[in-house]
Every structure is written in C-alpha cells, then in structure tokens.
Amino acid sequence: MARVAIVGAGVMGAATAWQLARRGHEVDIHEQFLVGHTRGSSHGRSRIVRLAYPEPEWVQFAEEAFAGWRELEAASGERLLELHGLLELVGDPATSSRDALEARGAEYELLDAEAARERWPIGVPDGWTVLFQSEAGIVRADLAWQALLDVATKTGAKLHESSRVESLAALDADVVVVTAGSWAGRLLEPEGIELPVKITRETVAYFKLDGPPLPSIVQLDPESRGHAMYSLRDPIHGLKAGAHHAGPETNPDDDGLPDLHLLDSISAWVSETYREADPKPLGAETCVYTTTEDESFVLERHGRIVVGSACSGHGFKFAPAVGERLAALAVA
Ligand SMILES: Cc1cc2nc3c(=O)[nH]c(=O)nc-3n(C[C@H](O)[C@H](O)[C@H](O)COP(=O)(O)OP(=O)(O)OC[C@H]3O[C@@H](n4cnc5c(N)ncnc54)[C@H](O)[C@@H]3O)c2cc1C
Prior knowledge:
The protein is of the alpha/beta class.
C-alpha cells in the first residue's frame, strides 16, 4: 500500500485518485482552488468524446477511455455520455480518420456535402466530405469531474481544497503525482524535470440551438490536417463552439477574457455551419490549453514523481484511461 499525494484535482487528478483509492492506496489530493473553479482546463458542461482519430493508437486509447466512462457511470449512477455521433468535415477524405477507424474495425460512413446537408441541418463547404462516426458525442464534463471526485473520496481518497502546493519535495508521501495542468511546469522545474509545453488561453462561446441533439462537429484544416473549428451540444443553450489552438500564449495565474476577434470568427463559422442556430453568442468563456508539440500526452515517472500532462485541447475524453496509466506508474 503506497502513500500518494496528487497535486491538482482537475479531471486528470480526480481520475487518478479514483484508480489509486479503489486499489486501497492512501491518497491525498491537493487543489489550490475549490473544485469546479474556472481557472484551469476542466470546467464547463460538455466536452467532445470520439473514437475518430487519424492514428489507430489514438482510436484504441479512446476505446479504453469509453470503457472507463461506462465504469464511472455504473459506479456513480450518473449518465455522463450522450452519444449522438461525430461529423468530421474534411476537404480531402484521405485526411479524415477513415483509415485509422478501418484499422481498428470501427464503423463509419463517408458522405458527400449534399448527402450530409440532406441528413443534418448543417452547412458543408462545396466539394467537401463528411465522415460520420456514431461512437461519439459529448461527455457531461461538470458531472464527470464531480463524479470522479465523489467515487474517489467514497473509496477513501482525501481531498484538500484551497491547498496550493509550493514544493513537491516538501510533500510527505511515497509518490507524488503531478496533474497540475498548465501549472505543472513550474512545479517540476525545481525537481530537474522539464515539461516542454505551450500554454494558451482559448475562447469558447455558447449559442441558442433548439431541436433534437446533433452530432458533434470537427472541421479539419486542409493544410495542417488538424482541427480548425469544433462544436458540440451544450445542455443549457444547445450549442458550444470554439476555434482550436487559436488563443494567445498566457500565464495560468493571469485572469483572462474571451478574445473578441475569435468570438467573431466562431460566430461566423456557426452561422455557416448551423442553419438553425442563432449566431449571436449567448455567452463566452476562456479555458487553458497545455499543449505539447505533437499533441501527445506526457505520462512518465521520474523517481518519486509521476508526471501527468494530458491536454493539448483534447485530453478530457481520455481521463479514465489516463487515470489508469498514472495510477499504474505511481505503484510500479
Ligand atoms: C476550450 C477547451 C476545450 C476543450 N475541449 C475538449 C473536448 O472537446 N474534448 C476533450 O477530450 N478535451 C477537450 N479539452 C481538453 C481538456 O479539457 C483537458 O485536457 C483537461 O481538462 C485537462 O485536465 P487537467 O486535470 O490536466 O488540467 P486542470 O483541469 O487545469 O487541472 C489542474 C489542476 O491543478 C491545480 N493546481 C495547479 N497547480 C497547483 C498547485 N501548486 N497546488 C495545488 N493545485 C494546483 C489547478 O488549480 C487545477 O485545478 C478542452 C480544453 C479547453 C481549454
């Protein structure tokens, strides 16, 4: 039985705490703010979940995470996943997740722009292709974050809110798991551990969209093959939308306001893409990305310290699987 201190009770710290506590380890979670705060990366009502990734290993990782969400739903009694599918809008079908899904034996459909416009009330650029994948939609992020902490504390983990860790060396524990999001780098540096990440403040906006839930949408940038714009169901207003990796570099301790230029481009994209949405934003907020060069996750152990940096704007969906891997590293 190990004594583990977890620094940061965002979705990654919460998921790790549950995996360690249910295996009987002694777990203390230190959070500098109160759970539910909006200063980091895990706040908000919804996040996209999807299997569709351009690489088979990411599809497999997402499959693991889906199983973890189902386990959490069973353990918490909460419905967390709302699966209405995903639409990947691409200029060239070869840049879609088609090949990786095929390699994993996951079902998908490819539709041309006209067929997609007939099937969903959406706008698709002429000549583009739409990949539809059904194992996708949203996770109720606020409910999931709370459910992870609830099951973790019910299985014995201790949560210390308003408890900012200044030095990892000062923590009285056998192992320290650092899931401190965009603050992780400055905690790790004194321990001689480098975390090569870029920290940006991203803007998301909410729009009025009535009617039955639509699939989440990711529109790929033909040049970078990365996501340019994305949108998903918001349980209150109907629609949440954002521009991926578009925000300015930031210091996580700074207060930040939504970027008005980004808000205009998000609103313009919503008016092109959603025939039935009101493109006038009902609200907007910021959220912080902690991004590695290739958008992979840093899940490593360095002596007594386990590093868990899983973001790059796409980490939430993987939280249950990240929690498993960090817990395994902590007791290895
Ligand atoms: C705008 C936006 C949209 C996104 N959309 C999606 C999506 O659709 N799908 C998806 O899968 N992912 C998405 N993500 C990514 C996902 O939300 C993140 O990967 C995930 O929330 C990261 O969680 P975390 O626990 O690592 O970080 P955080 O939630 O930031 O947690 C870190 C915690 O550590 C605490 N902390 C830091 N330093 C200390 C200290 N010294 N002492 C004590 N506590 C400390 C912080 O207060 C914070 O609570 C999105 C992210 C953003 C910003």
